[in-house]
């Protein structure tokens, strides 16, 4: 697995690189936002460890630009932040990060988060297709399409959004609580607040709904969770 570390503090960057190299990962280190984008284009890493506060471009802008690049590999993004306030974590996740880690952190927790992210794609059964009247997911090819007209369009989803939509399409009409979705997608590897699910639901709605403010497919069940309906 190829990892890109984006950290402007040389001591922290070297610590992360040494820790993950010992775990068998191939790591590159970038020290500012512009270099991070260039290394992303050149090496197309499987996972990016992205500091929030960076020179040139901050981590939020780097994350946003990576998610807007559709012709390259779509990596997992673990965002690092020295701030512990919930609003900072939510902003990071809303721009496309898959998880966050608050400084200071232990090397053991870092490795656990990285391995948890890289295992997510293995949680779905291979060679299966889920289909509803307007949506189709091919788990083997990792392609999701929406057909609101006669012509199907390929949805531009992050790895987590793809797995989340696949979960809903696997049981149309089923009501999922936050904790059930976390168990399905993260298992025992989850760290953090269950409300992170709401952020990912909001991002997914913007990509699959004609009007995300009035969802037709991915609906909230007040006091319980979410369900997917397509009739």
Total beta-strand segments: 12
Give the end-to-end Cα distance, rounded to a whole number of Å: 41 Å
* Count of helix runs: 8
- The H/E string reads EHEHEHEHEHEEEEHEHHEE
Coarse shape: globular
Strand content: 15-25%
In terms of structural class, how would the helical and strand content be classed?
alpha/beta
Rg calculated over all Cα atoms: 18 Å
Order of adjacent strands in the largest pleated sheet: 2-1-3-4-5
Q: Mean of residue pLDDT?
A: 86
Q: Which residues sit in consecutive blocks of at least 5 with pLDDT less than 50?
A: 122-127
- Largest pleated sheet: 5 strands, parallel
Which percent range fits the helix content? 25-40%
Q: How would you describe what is shown here?
A:
The structure is a single chain. The protein has 231 residues and is an alpha/beta fold. Helices cover 39% and strands 21% of the residues. It is built from 8 helices and 12 strands. α2 packs parallel to α3 and α6 (159-170) crosses α8. It is globular, with a radius of gyration of 18 Å. The model is unreliable at 122-127 (pLDDT under 50).
Give me a quick take on this structure:
This protein is 39% helix and 21% strand.
What labels describe this entry?
231 residues, alpha/beta, five-stranded parallel β-sheet, four-stranded antiparallel β-sheet
Topology:
Elements: E1 2-6, H1 10-22, E2 26-30, H2 33-43, E3 47-51, H3 59-68, E4 76-81, H4 86-94, E5 99-102, H5 107-119, E6 129-131, E7 135-138, E8 143-146, E9 153-154, H6 159-170, E10 175-177, H7 178-185, H8 196-208, E11 218-221, E12 225-228
Parallel strand pairs: 1-2, 1-3, 3-4, 4-5
Antiparallel strand pairs: 6-7, 7-8, 8-9, 10-12, 11-12
Helix pairs in contact: 2-3, 6-8
